[in-house]
Amino acid sequence: MSENRDKTDQELIDACRAGRHDAWHEVLTRYERLVFSIPLNFGLARADAADVAQLTFTALVEHLDRLRPDSNLGAWLATVARRYTLRALRVQRREFSGQDEDIGDHPMLMTLAAADSSAAWERV
What residues contact residue 59 under an 8 Å CB cut-off, 6+ apart? Predict the structure, then answer.
């Protein structure tokens, strides 16, 4: 597994596409803290953050073949994690208030708006 530590994101993506389990392990090792920290920073509970992380890495598996060669894996995963986090916050707000409010006033959104406005997590 140590041979994967020096691999670029693209090399890891290629190894994952080839079905190399050690490459998947390296992707998780390299990015799980980043992905898990995003929902926590938005205020989600640890269990909800774990759900977001699981959904995020599942999305990676589902979109692996569509990632472009110049994809920045960390940025892609962070964008997907933010999208799932915002969905979880919407669900929580609906459950708490009984209505479907917009979460546009969330403080974290102000700092993310410029960086994330043109990126759709489905786009690869």
Answer: 80, 84, 121
